[in-house]
Amino acid sequence: MGKRRQDIELILLEALEKQTPAERTIFLDQVCGDDVRMRAELESLLGSHAQAGDFLQTPPLAQDFCLDETPVVEGPGTVIGRYKLLQKIGEGGMAVVYMAEQTEPIRRKVALKIIKLGMDTRQVIARFEAERQAPALMDHPCIAKVLDAGATETGRPYFVMELVTGVSITEYCDKNSLSTKDRLGLFLQVCQAVQHAHQKGIIHRDLKPSNVMVTHHDGKPVPKVIDFGIAKATNQTLTEKTLFTRYAHIIGTPAYMSPEQAELSDLDIDTRSDIYSLGVLLYELLTGTTPFSEEELRKAGYIEMQRVIREQEPVRPSTKLSTLGETLTDIAKCRNCTPDLLRKAVRGDLDWIVMKSLEKDRTRRYETVSGLA
């Protein structure tokens, strides 16, 4: 595959992950720049995809995009192996997640993730295999378990995971008005899960509230770390297929990514990147906001976003609380306390712990998640 063709394919796949046309436009602005030819080619391919509905028409660039002559669309009631699909519970650019019922040897509800029709390129399959293999290496109560894997009759891979029913950790804490102490209790469980992943040689690289769901077990809240879709192995291979770093794309979610992730290469990412992301998560659990606004980062443009993440120092959590004005009353209420008590609780040790986790120079962060916890 030629270099330009490979670049076009990777950019197209990334663009298809964007949830709205506006997000796709911003992304294309960032990666295409003044390359009018590339922009036109990508817009044409995206247009073909939109016209095709759920099916991706074969574009000129890729013999890798394989559609069956009589494609089958999965939906509620479809049976895949031992699993009957019940309802769609999630969807991205590449894959769909269903709640399903396992019929044998035992009956139980599970989550089944399957690559979309037409998206079974070598790159997507390689990423999918890595996402499946990473959690399969681990065994921790706060990490969603992989239960099974296989392929449909048409050859599209799927994998089956423990069904995690719940909400994000930040939403759970706010809805239940959890105190700072109780929030820290949940956060410590998340840290233990991430430390387990690191001990197994896995770096998550996308720790954020939506990837830490809270469910209940025996009446107690239990956080579950999910979505190892961009995980990196430190001492083993997650897939035999080649994994390319996405073209001109920083891997992760801007508001939660470490300064080293804000580079165009993932070759120098280690476990301390996850420690930074945990620091952002703790910052948000304490203050109700991230150190740098996700919306403002995206509006800033690609180069400025990189600069902010890599160079701009965040303010301390207690200082951030002092800048929130009337919003602080609501934030404190969600933490079952007053604004003054919240500022007092955060000021001091928690300020110091968060800021050490958020050091731009990773050598100044905690060496391990256990050190943070």
Structure report:
The chain has 373 residues and is of the alpha+beta class. It folds into 3 domains: 3-51, no CATH class; 79-162, Phosphorylase Kinase, domain 1, CATH 3.30.200.20; 167-372, Transferase(Phosphotransferase), domain 1 (Orthogonal Bundle). 41% of the residues lie in helices and 15% in strands. It contains 14 helices and 11 strands. It has a 6-stranded antiparallel sheet with strand order 1-2-3-4-6-5, with helices on one face. Helix 1 (3-17) packs across helix 3 (36-51), helix 6 (180-199) packs antiparallel against helix 7 (271-287) and helix 8 crosses helix 9 (302-311). It is globular and about 60 Å long. The protein starts with a helix and ends with a helix. The model is unreliable at 53-69 and 240-248 (pLDDT under 50).
